[in-house]
């Protein structure tokens, strides 16, 4: 296997050229995607559930909690977001537990484009990244120039990472090439200034076969991360859809040598949930993905639960919501 | 990469299930006519934990006289038990099912200690299936008129049942639940290396208030089992175990009126077509041969893979095997536990060595084996042909033989080319191919896009030298009814 | 006995797992067989019936989608919970039906055992109603049964508890949900059964219990377009005919009233009445393009 490069690395484009045939035309792409091995839903869910029974205790739990904290994209994506709210969130990301300075920082904060500058100002001098959703998040129902302008705005405001949504309508209508080219266009806009996370909204794609196909479209188009969901629909990240996407990045790296990250988002609220996802990572793709360059959690309330569990491990007594900060 | 934190392994800390939930007595007698009693002559044998070789308890070695006492007790109990309204028998079995559910953690730990299999399996597979089996047959006890065997079908009498060590309590459930539901009484002999859960089950019978003599447990070795199946007071013999012993039992009961069912060996073919859901197929292959350390009669011990995807599949399989966690069976994260006995380990070792000697290529992931106890690495052999012993003989261990095929017809021919016919697996996304292949396979249980699935409603049993008769489901009633 | 004043029980409807009063705000007097006042029962309106159908419909997906094994466990749990409140039901049945204690005990015991009987059927009825069909062609053909959906049940008027259980349990055993109209003159055991069901792992909405005038409530259930079937056990001949005509509007499955000895062992009729059979065809083909079977 060739040495691994990240999707935004210099060699990645060259590596992907080897798969140029697959993306040469609409029909070639369709044949490629429909030629991917099928996914048996029962088997996939059973595997995810069985990994969910791993028992992570004591030192392993402490390790997992800190790792999970360091992987969070601490998120606020509300119509009601204000500079005050975003500043508080960013402060929390930089200093999650004021009572314990050994607590790791989160990987990033994730906000709307117009809040990027606010977040950036608070986080200056830290290694916490600012991620911005873009491309007419969450529905993605806008013309391409609008989506690109949205992306450009976020990057100009200082975003380190862009979380774009794919055009699910195009995907479900079978216009895979449109989906791919749109991602490519956004990727070009990101250039080497921002890493690109591609959100599939797996709850809307509905089938596992679709999620596998979308994963490959995203990776072929140059995504740095593939991400489950916006957090705005009924079904967001699940162990099964995340396992499937982990299998996809594993297979993609085996084929191309290009490594792509995975970000489950939405619905992960407890330490127990987060640890289950880390077990999925550990046993599907292994330690190469076990850091925040390659795996993220899109979450908000998860952080406080992790902090309470962390306090429990260090003090031996259960903590409560009054002992973590509300933001 | 500069921004890449140095990776460190996510090492799972030990997560042992507590042994304190189970209280094993230093010695156990035979359970006959509702009482525990020493064996005639007082002979005993030790049962050990195969993962540590620690002695767990001493158990009575039942003699022919003990078997005779047990059969007589069962005969005496039969009269009233078979005359009870079905609804009342049902309620006893429901009670047993509920008590098993209540005591399931205790029984899971016990089974793991005595058998060596991972707690994950006893907790999540064995015990839930045991309770479900009693629950299912409880429901049949008052519905026999609806089972398709005519009106008011009658029980046979005393059932002599001999069970193996691979699923001690589950095999007990498969034997006792349908026997009792249909109005028979039983004398059951558990395996020599795993007698404890049957003795705990005796206690459950007492808690449930089951009338004395309806269930009798006689521990011992092969001679005890032989005495039981030969006893003239036995009306029905049910055996799960090796094909060799099954044949001996068939000879023993020849010329008698004893009804016989046999669940014997297997050499299941797991057939993977090029359009299979690969990731799930890999899981199914792993589950098929490494579940319970491969000590499963219906194990998918032969992988038949379409040549066009062989390399890809083997890469994926090896990658997956490297993540299996072998070690302390009581650790909740253990995937592969201990081999049940030194004797079985020797047999697995001998057959695996023959595979190498006959020219197949051996592969096993690197993993440390504990110092004490009986262990065998999950192993696969490539380059296996139909002529190799490891393609024909039942290894009953964590050893997978990989063969290839080119066409569906060849896959079926190779799968069927065996003295056995217990199980098979088919992996393909194409429904018509699955059904066409299934209809040609000479095997009693066929799993498509899954493997090693069990349910009390579903009949289980083999073709050819894998035995005859079915256990489970509506079909499982027939073995215990005079029809 | 001291002169302590006892606490009366307020009987309420059981709808969607909750215990509402009648939307009508009305009650009616329930008396024992000698005419002595026992309690007030809610007098359900058509709106209560409508609410109950909504609750029942909402519960269909989860209940019919549960495994048969799980439904069996839940039904058995009902028997376990009833066993613990046996004395209460013996007293209620004795009062409601004017029975001696011994006879009431027999009714209640039989009712508990009936739950056990149907608990055992959940994972077996499909095995005797379905199966493969040996069609003449290269096809796999299998028939299986599934619940029809929401069943309106008019409970028997005379057998306030054993009869009630005998009509509810078979309908829900197979995965239907029910709206049951209790015996008009003896509704109290039915309303108390709701309290048992609420604490028995039965999901809310699977069984909904209404009390009141059968002839007032039943027509709206019989005509309701979102009800799939109706059991007319508790209707007299005249009402039954009228309801069957109304039920024809959306071709409800109708189980007509018949003479039933509720104490006798039931067959499978009350389950099969509310099952649909689905048959699936799938090609099997041959192993090779040449049609050879190797």
Strand order of the largest sheet of chain A: 9-7-6-5-4-3-2-10
CATH fold group of chain C: Aldehyde Dehydrogenase, Chain A, domain 1
Task: Please report the first level of CATH classification, the CATH class of chain C.
Answer: Alpha Beta
Distance between the termini of chain C: 87 Å
Report Rg of chain A.
Answer: 19 Å
Helix-strand pattern of chain A: EHHHHEHEHEHEHHEHHEHEEHEH
Q: Which percent band covers the strand fraction of chain C? A: 15-25%
Please report which band the strand proportion of chain A falls in: under 5%, 5-15%, 15-25%, 25-35%, 35-45% or over 45%: 5-15%
Question: Quick check: average pLDDT of chain C?
Answer: 96
State the oligomer: heterotrimer
Protein name (chain C): Aldehyde dehydrogenase family protein
InterPro entries (chain C): Ald_DH/histidinol_DH, Ald_DH_N, Aldehyde_DH_dom
Keywords (chain C): Oxidoreductase
Pfam families (chain C): Aldedh (PF00171)
What does this structure look like?
- The complex is a heterotrimer of chains A (327), B (483) and C (294).
- Chain A contains 14 helices and ten strands.
- Chain A is an alpha/beta fold and 327 residues long.
- The longest helix of chain A is centred in the C-terminal third of the chain and has 18 residues, at 239-256.
- Chain B has two domains: 19-264 and 466-478, 3-Layer(aba) Sandwich (Aldehyde Dehydrogenase, Chain A, domain 1), CATH 3.40.605.10; 269-455, Aldehyde Dehydrogenase, Chain A, domain 2, CATH 3.40.309.
- Chain B is globular.
- The model of chain B is unreliable at 1-7 (pLDDT under 50).
- Chain B has 483 residues and is α/β, with parallel strands linked by helices.
- In chain B, the strands form five sheets. A seven-stranded mixed β-sheet of chain B has the order 13-14-15-12-11-17-18, with helices on both faces. Chain B has a six-stranded mixed β-sheet with strand order 8-7-6-9-10-20, with helices on both faces. Chain B has a three-stranded mixed β-sheet with strand order 1-5-4, with no helix packed on it.
- Chain C has a single domain (27-283), classed as 3-Layer(aba) Sandwich (Aldehyde Dehydrogenase, Chain A, domain 1), CATH 3.40.605.10.
- In chain C, β1 (27-31) and β2 form a beta hairpin.
- Chain B binds chain C through residues 87, 90-91, 94, 132, 135-136, 138-143, 146-148, 407-410, 412-413, 431-433, 435-437, 439-440, 456-457, 473-474, and chain C through 68-69, 72-73, 76, 113, 116-117, 119-124, 127-128, 140, 265, 268, 282-288, 292-294.
